[in-house]
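To the wet lab folks,

You asked to see what we're planning to order before we commit. Fair enough. Below is the target structure as tokens, and below that is the sequence we designed to fit it. If anything looks off to you, flag it before the synthesis order goes out.
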């Protein structure tokens, strides 16, 4: 929280003191008629480490494509969404009356550093965690991610993670691998006071291989193994009588993503679906989870944006342990019931927001900082929102009148390195209000 507030204060001070401002939007390019030029070449500048093909892979414009302002703006946001650059600018350079080159100029972020870890779990400011990590998020200049971390405080953990999006030169096949040891506080509210105060010890190994078709479609397969140890707690909360569940995990899924800017979209669609089996084979653990998430971002006149989301996660087959229940009140929230916990085996939710730009995105250059940290972003977005959702157990009916609802308005502050701070006020269906201070986008 202190870091986010310091970002906000510094941005205001920089504006007042007249620090160099690169542009009012940070996203300007030379205007050309939509019926004008055909793309001949893509020329990239400023990428001292990042390979050209990493950037070109994100672009919808290819050699021979007709250049339009809409396509230029879309590709600019796609490149920025890589998370490798502080700023991305695109403009055209006509080579004759028919053809033109596209010039892409990027400002790279710093890519290798030990970093402090500080945050909150489950969007709850009382659940502070902290630690240290080592991250290389542009290993070999190929957008590979390599990190290790030690986290203390609420739900401590040790983890090692690697992601390679370029198993082939075209970047159509990717690999992810992770090893983690976690101590997780019980979330379930099913037990009597005192019985619910226990920790779960999780050891997990995972490997994912995926295929990317174009810039919009991704398929993936995953395999892993998990050990959940509750053997020190009576009564036993695991499916196996010994207090330790050991089981393989297999999954597959599909994602369709046309969003322009992953960190705070203003255009596009996200559709994601997955099937994950736990156990199968296993002596005690045998259940399946089906998950789906659909999000839509619709630009309106005046730079207004209408957004919507609907999602679900359903369980089938064998009995479900309490440590795999789903909730509202942790990572998923219903504003108006922000601190209330809804628990079940299945979950359904939907949200809608209306975004009104108050201060469009501005980029500032802070000359006394190292280059990789010198470009700062600042924007203010007003919001009007509505949320609804519920959880339930197998055998229970699901009806519209069971949905828990809330609505309200707020102010989103967009900061450097894609940080978002949200100030909101929400009411529930009984018109009871609550103030919400939250970090990150609502969805």
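Sequence we intend to order:
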């Amino acid at each position: 929280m202190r870091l986010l507030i310091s970002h906000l204060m510094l941005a205001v001070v920089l504006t007042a003191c007249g620090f160099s401002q690169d542009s009012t939007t940070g996203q300007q390019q030379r205007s050309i008629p939509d019926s004008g030029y055909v793309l001949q070449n893509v020329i990239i500048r400023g990428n001292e480490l990042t390979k050209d093909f990493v950037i070109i892979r994100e672009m919808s414009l290819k050699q021979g494509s007709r250049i339009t302002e809409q396509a230029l703006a879309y590709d600019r946001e796609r490149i920025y969404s890589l998370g490798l650059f502080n700023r991305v600018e695109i403009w055209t350079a006509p080579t004759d009356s028919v053809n033109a080159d596209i010039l892409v100029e990027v400002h790279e972020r710093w890519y290798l550093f030990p970093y402090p870890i500080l945050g909150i779990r489950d969007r709850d400011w009382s659940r502070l965690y902290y630690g240290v990590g080592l991250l290389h998020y542009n290993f070999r200049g190929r957008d590979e991610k390599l990190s290790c971390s030690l986290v203390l405080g609420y739900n401590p953990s040790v983890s090692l993670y690697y992601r390679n999006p370029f198993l082939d030169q075209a970047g159509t096949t990717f690999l992810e691998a992770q090893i983690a040891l976690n101590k997780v506080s019980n979330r379930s509210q099913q037990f009597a006071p005192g019985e619910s105060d226990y920790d779960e010890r999780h050891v997990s190994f995972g490997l994912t291989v995926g295929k990317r078709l174009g810039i919009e479609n991704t398929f993936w397969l995953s395999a892993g193994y998990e050990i959940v140890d509750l053997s020190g707690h009576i009564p036993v909360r695991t499916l196996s009588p010994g207090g330790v569940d050991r089981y393989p995990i297999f999954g597959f899924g599909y994602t369709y993503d046309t969003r322009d800017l992953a960190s705070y979209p203003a255009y596009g669609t996200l559709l994601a679906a997955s099937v994950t089996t736990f156990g199968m084979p296993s002596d005690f653990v045998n259940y399946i989870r089906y998950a789906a998430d659909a999000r839509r971002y619709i630009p309106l006149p005046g730079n207004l944006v209408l957004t919507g989301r609907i999602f679900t996660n359903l369980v089938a087959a064998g009995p479900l342990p309490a440590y795999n229940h789903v909730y509202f009140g942790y990572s998923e929230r219903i504003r108006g019931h922000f601190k209330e916990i809804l628990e079940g085996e299945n979950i359904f939710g939907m949200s809608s927001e209306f975004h009104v730009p108050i201060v469009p995105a501005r980029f500032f250059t802070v000359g006394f900082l190292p280059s990789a940290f010198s470009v700062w972003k600042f924007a203010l977005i007003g919001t009007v929102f509505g949320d609804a959702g519920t959880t339930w157990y197998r055998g229970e009916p699901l009806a519209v009148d069971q949905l828990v609802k809330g609505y309200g308005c707020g102010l989103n502050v967009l900061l450097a390195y894609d940080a978002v701070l949200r100030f909101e006020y929400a009411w529930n269906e009984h018109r009871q209000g609550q103030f919400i201070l939250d970090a990150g986008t609502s969805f």
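Structural context that might help your review: The CA atoms of residues 231 and 242 lie 7 Å apart. Confidence is low (pLDDT under 50) at residues 1-33.

Thanks,
Computational group
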